[in-house]
Amino acid sequence: MAEPYRIKMVEPIKMTTREQREEAIKRAGYNTFLLDSEDVYIDLLTDSGTNAMSDNQWSGMMLGDEAYAGSKNFKNLLAAVQDLYGFKYVVPTHQGRGAENILSQIMIEPGDYVPGNMYFTTTRAHQELNGATFVDVIIDEAHDSEAELPFKGNVDIEKFKKLINDVGAERIPYISLAVTVNMAGGQPVSMANIREVAEVAHSHGIKVFMDATRCAENACFIKQREPGYQHKSIPDILREMFSYADGCTMSGKKDGIVNIGGFLALNDPDLYQKAASLVVVYEGMPSYGGMAGRDMEALARGLYEAADYDFLTHRLSQVQYLWDMLDEAGIPIVRPAGGHAVFIDARKFYPHIPQDHFPAQTLAAELYVRSGVRSMERGIVSAGRDKEGRHHYPKLELVRLTIPRRVYTYAHLDVVADAVIDLYQERDKVKGLRMVYEPPVLRFFTARFEPL
Fold it and tell me: Has this prediction a pTM greater than 0.85?
């Protein structure tokens, strides 16, 4: 599908030499997060805040009401969330993890359990810092890169029920339901599963909070894959999705198509008052939280643009395009194609590298040196350690090729595919890494490595 937009402004990028990239990755401790942007040719590190805003969003930036209280831009953001998602209250935050912090503090007591359809790094970190234990209740197939299911992000209802029986509903404040599931490969959750999760949770007095970061992509998958939704609009699908939830955390940097911002949305007035009290401590006034007025305006407009079916169809087609090229070349990748990225199975790419020698981290570094393409590890480094200090060993050891919204063309994706395919031809020559610096929390951001 051709791009459903015209390009009005461009940002020049340059290709570096292999020698320059070898020196850059060494300075970065073989961690792609620590590379300088100017040393990157095609940046597929993340789709978080790396998107291209529209002329409509940029015009909204000029209408920023930067009043300390009562900003009209907050009213526009609130109206957009109420219209598209159906929640009554909105607490703006600087980004999604700000909302996760507040939600975790107002909902979790030490000793609680929070089930979810696979962990996400910052989400689990906030839950654990507030004394909870995360429990993965996603279907087993989500941990198998080769399993092909249309809704691979679904919750296993029996796992959820078993947790309730084992620990008691009173120790489960809410279920964290991601739509889509990042760590599973950007895989969606079906409407039927969302509905069933809500029925089980609410029957036991357990709340449902969604990670809405890529909810528009999830809605598009529902429209394309789930019977009965082909003729429904994306906004209508979004409204039904969120009708089963008690609230959501949102990183506007993804399906809000902005460079900064997020929010916590709620229906319960008492929870809103608690959240509004905390946002003053951590972010700012309840009418701006961690955002400038101009950014709230851009986000309000971006939420509508992300719910446009033509935009979403192109978005998913770019991911599918890259996925198809790698699949045809025999590259081991997560199946089927997800919503925001193509995920390479690094354990199968480098089967001779043990997981504690960080095959995904190795592949991300090798891809950068080969081509100037920056990607991200999503494996043992991202999984971190347990409370006893032992590595978590996730079944999925992945490298994420994340496609920003409205930034790159299909020609850029050709370059990415060629580089990955070339690396695969020489995979037997590569050795792993060892970690030489490790921070105590969210180590994947700043850990440093050196070649074995």
Answer: yes
